[in-house]
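Deliverable D4.2, example record:
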Amino acid sequence: MKKETYKIYGIHCASCVAVIENALLKTIGVYSATVNFATETALVEFDENVVSVADLAKIVDSVGYKLEISPEKEIAMSNKMPDMGMDMNAPQHNHMDMEREDQMKDMKLKLIIGGILSVFIFFGSFSEWFSFIPKILNNNWMLLILTTPVQFWVGSQFYSGIKLLVKYRTADMNTLIAIGTLAAYFYSVAVTVFPIYFSSSGITPAIYFDTSAIIIVLVLLGKYLEVLMKGRASEAIKKLIGLQPKTAKILRERKEIEVSIIDVQVGDMIIVRPGERIPVDGKIIEGESEIDESMITGESMPVHKKAESVVIGSTINKFGTFTFQATKVGKDTVLSQIIKMVEDAQGSKAPIQRLADMVSSYFVPSVFAVAALTFIVWFFFGPAPAFTFALVNFVAVLIIACPCALGLATPMAIMVASGNAAGKGILIKDAASLEIANKINAIILDKTGTLTYGKPVVTDIFGDVLQIGASIENKSEHSIAWAIVNKAKEEKVNILQIENFQAIPGHGVSAELNNGKVLLGTRKLMADNKINTEEWEEKITNLENQGKTVIIVAVDKKMAGLIAVADVLKKESVEVVRTLRENNIEVWMLTGDNDRTARAIAKQAGIENVMSEVLPDKKSEKVRELQAQGKIVAMIGDGINDAPALTQADIGIAMGEGTDIAMESANITLMRGDLTLIPEVIKLSRHTMKIIKQNLFWAFFYNIAFIPVAAGALYPFFGVLLNPIFAGVAMAFSSISVVGNSLRLKTKKL
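Output generated by the structure prediction step:
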């Protein structure tokens, strides 16, 4: 299966989305198809052995739209560049931005000319209100001349709707606009050309050149503002793209040369000086520095890096000069993966959008039926001139009912929210995850590397045994041994020479130091060597009850002291657990540790629910157990053994400091591995769903509440009719309000 995103031309409203999706999903070999109105793209998963990209383009063309295989996609297929382009500043990558700019220039020109002409048309149509207007503007033929370029040039983009109706027997927003304005225009033309026929009844016929012209300008203005605001909504992607440097300074044949970023290969040695961006991902070979990784992790404080430290492409080198070896280039870099993930999230659909899509698929045909019924009722039962009343209400219904706002309600909010999250170091894989996150009522936190740092440290020392312990453990490769050695380095304790080092698997180590025999290890090791530990038993038990691992140190058959080691809680763990519980979310800790140790750690974190002694392959079963109780479960983890549980959970959240497999399995990735981002994810989801529901309410309100008014339902009771021009204003405002409301998520503090 291949999964790709393609640009689609001609998408104007939610009904367009339904038409394209239905056409693609009916195609043999297409597994899924998601069309996004806000981004004007289609995310298609298909079997290349059954259907080709060219076939997809033909299918989309067959229903009146155009699918483009963009230049950047073709380059991406060569693996020289990531899906978003290896050279993020290359002309190919800016193709869509240039396209939007050209579209906006064209719309701006038409708006200026159409606006000027519409002002003259409006004044000429109501000369009785404006006595200062030259009489020539009150001439129907002059109004026809002024209106024609507005109708057919300024409003040219709306005539694709007529083609859609005639050729493909379907309709969209453009169909409504085109038919509505053409009805007003051609009726006015007929009145102008055959005035005697229309005035034979003794009533001076009205003309509606002003209606068709002003509606076209208003709708175009709404579309222009919509495109402008969409550009603001996608700024997160643009900022990420702009971070990629264009060149890299690499060492080849002992010479430093500057090459294009496209030419950097895995294994190249790259030099980075203060103030420069790191070109690609890699590992430091020589030197050290402070790196600003805020664009990836959201963390403002620079991170110290030295030899063997991993560096991320596009982050900023603050101080020192260093040389690193490239390990990931092109589409494999962290930045490219982030851009791809944000793009996919913005292009995906939340489950709540299905409601809008379903309504939209039936909406436009229903509007035509209502408009036709409105015309018939007014024509046969309306006051004189009946035809005029029928026409005005027919046009008003078509214009007010355009479902633009309905199609924008969900995707615009998702686009802004996912971009905002990425800037804070939260990567959301799809829109469904963003929606589900606010429904979470149970969270499982893996202990090691999630609640804790995942690296044991020395917490307690009893007796003068640090130098002895570090000197012996310096020969060991065990993680506990390194904790003791690192503690000695921190305390600037000298490491002594030892002899006859021996590891005793599962129990400890032994060695000779200053001609004396030293033992480090468990009670069992001491008992086997007939060393009495009774005097220290109370301290040992207390430390173990705190979840610590106790290393007993004995010299020449006598107890010398204790060293306690523990994988300590992250400083934010307690606060995060408290916040989650205050939000009525059940918190569980999952670990492979024995129950006593697990509960000691859980108690420190404020967690009451513990799943202990869980083998790696059983973690997903624990998730299923909670799901079987009807809970919406989020799993938080960082290791390879967490991947099945992350996949099983309703929402899998991976710590960015963890493995690539965990991140791939998760729905959401926290790039800086900070637990405080978990409540922020839930808050973001709640804010986003609130905005989406507001958008859907107003979209439905505009369409449903005003259609009866446009049809003239209030006229028999209050004498109120909705002027088609005001219908155009309301329709344009509905789209703008939905986009504007979504943009509030950009500045929302979590």
